[in-house]
Amino acid sequence: MNIDNFTPKQIEEAKEVIQKKEFIIPLPKTSNEIPPVLYVFRHGQSEDNSNFIFSGWRDSKLTELGRNQAEILSEKLKDEHFDLAITSKLVRAKETLDIVLKHHRNAKVEIDDRIIERSYGDLQGSSKIELYLKDPVTEEKYRRDYDFPANNGESLKMVEKRVKSFLNSLLPRMKAEKINVVVSCHSNSMRALRKILENLTVEEMCKLENPLGQDFASYEIK
């Protein structure tokens, strides 16, 4: 199957559906400046984001727009204090964090793949548009269902499990060491983080959209 077999109108309609912002909950920001505070953001636009590709665990660099988004985010965070910065091993998350940390050169950096993007298994590298045009119901299930993994991939439920493990080790450390931490996330790992930290329902998490770069959430850790 090739999207060239479809009309430009059909392709544009597919893009609109895939990009539709189902459910936006404003990113929370604590007014507390005393550690421990946790800062969370999603990476800027990647080449795969721009081309409607299932990225998952494959590497995809930031686009020029993605770098500009990260610069906006960097300006918003420049007056905060970070002791520790955590990212996945994927280049889009690392590039975004590097831009943010130009104002925070003393922050220690760690890589933790419990916050890596959801694995899309056999779908990685394939076109979301092509799948939508072929089977829109299945395409939406891959993006929106809680327990529907791609072949050899992960469900959102599986992502939540590893993100919960990440928080269960990080939050006590933050309280013990009295440190502020910033985390460079991906779409689905940030959904899971927000579900846990904001007590969202499964339904809310599955529909939740977080912005590419540009903005952040912050949480007072008690």
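the 2nd protein, sequnce then structure:
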Amino acid sequence: MLLPIAGLFSVLSLVHAAPQLKLGKTTLVGRDITELKLDFFGGIPYAEPPLGNLRLRPPVLKTSLDSKSFDASNFGKGCLQPSSSVTEFSEDCLTINVYRPTGTKSNAKLPVLFWTYGGGFQDGEASIYNASAIVAQSVARGTPLIYVNYNYRLGPLGFPQGKEADERGALNLALKDQLTALEWVQANIETFGGDKKKVTVFGESAGAIMTAVLFLNSPIERLARAAARQSLAASIFVLFNAERREVDWQNFVSGVPSCASLATSGHTFDCLRKANSTEMFTGVVTAISDAPEEFGFDPTIDGPGGLFPDIASRLLKKGHFARLPFIAGTNLDEGTLFTPTTGNFTSDDIRETIIANFSPPLVAESVLTSTADKILELYPDIPALGSPFNTGNETFGLPSGFKRQAAIMGDINFHGQRRSWIQTAASAGVKTFGYLFTQPQLFNAPSLGVSHGSEVFFVYGAPPDTSAPALLLSSLMIDYWVSFATSLDPNDGHGLPRPEWPQYTTSNEVLLQLNGLNTTVIPDDFRKEQIAFINSDPAVYHQRRTLKRRKLN
């Protein structure tokens, strides 16, 4: 998920002569970003519009455009999501965008960065990510690359829930959108000057989760050669069970006026395929607003032969994961954004939260209860030990237990999972690099600290804080990411002088701390006993429910 950033990334500007290229029999007319010497081609359909009979079905790869010329000078609309206007977004949203250095020839064979955005699986769009800084810096450092991003279906249209969706094979449609976008890259990126054999997939939060799921059991190894996963979450422990979320699906259907009477019938798809997009928009808004959980629509276990065939921890234990190099990291205070600011945060309150979040348990209820008790023992109510970390006894006007619960939730849902994944991969000989982002966020509420989503601005060259340390860190992070995408090593010797980022191995479990005043190597041993306990019995954490998070001013 991404903090609201629309408008912070600058719009494409400084238009000059429009670049053109042939995609099949169609001439794409893009946009020239003159000052940065970049070409942009956007809004290109990569799949047939998922409307009418194609609604709630897997995407159909778009193999040709139906015109001699196509205006690719702007992004396409994002997929349906909660909004104040039904026309702001569209169901006809499966489009892809390409940034490349100006003058790139079709035989250039440039590496490709392929981005999947976050947004809690229910909001977000490609257009808010301006990759100009990434591509321009790749050229300046002598290792040019191409950047690609795309839209995928969201909420109930991207992640249908319930028994009917399961029986109709309609689970995880957004994951299939992601795969189809990657298939489009394989089929077409050479036309833009890219190398289809050198694709690095990267994403943040929901985007990192989707990418991680593909790494568990899918054809990802023929579609990409590496990955970078920012704020990797929910890929190790959590079981998403579609039938458990029957009510979420019923809420969605009840919000579609012409189908509302069928909401509890178990036979809704045929009606939904006949509804118009305005009705679907109403249903999406209803489903998201009425969801009892923060994330009611997300990746779902889809059984043998599916994209998410089994509990992730079982697949990892069996070695069922792609042996591709990757970067994986988290932000210092991942749990603060997902901890409500209201409540007393007593031990009983936090125990109830843990039990509620992971119920009904796949283990005996007594095991879940004893686990909650042990976690409370390992995370005492001492503000100096809580999150935001490194803030001493400051409680920001909140009960001291807020910092305790934020630390627990951050470790269960983010830090513990990143550590488990990277340790498992390293032990299998996979080339991995880990990081911890600790750059102070001057424009965050103090109680958020270095919160979830904070690093995205820096990866895109747009830190809200424009101080010299922040700008330097942003440039360093782009260098590391570009270096990894082009050479499978963040230490290629090009670009700015920067600390060596050691590979994470079983004999050298270290992270790169990303901080404008102190980017340095640190041991991956923070809260070692606590996270080891969390990772010791992943079955406890399969049934996750996330309470509605705080509303930010």
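Residues 401-427 form the longest helix (27 residues). The chain has a mean pLDDT of 91.
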